[in-house]
Design goal:
Blueprint: H1 2-22, E1 25-36, E2 46-51, E3 57-61, E4 67-73, E5 76-83, E6 87-88, E7 90-96, E8 106-112
Parallel strand pairs: 1-8
Antiparallel strand pairs: 1-4, 2-3, 2-5, 5-7, 6-8
Length: 113
Amino acid sequence: MRRMLVLVAGVCLGAGLVVQASDVRGMNRIAGTVTDAAGAPVAGVTIKATLDAAGGAIDSQSDAKGAWAVAGMAKGEWSVIFVKPGFTGQKAKVILPADMSRVPPIKIVLKKD
């Protein structure tokens, strides 16, 4: 009986984690570019978008042209951080509406350490 109770509790906890992870997923998308102070694209920047209300995150990375995108985002207020070794990180706040309105491109400038 005790094993059954532990198993049921584990299944319920696991199901709760799946619901939390799905809370960050939606149909919205943000995108933009990352450059250095001279205007050159910065490749390999890690982008982490965190939905403030749910705490879940979606990660991405900039390409050779400094372009990046994060897709599949739910509505709400997001904190987006941009980090790469050798540069001072940047943070942006983005509010995504429920109606999936187009969000203008976000241009980030990273300064070298």
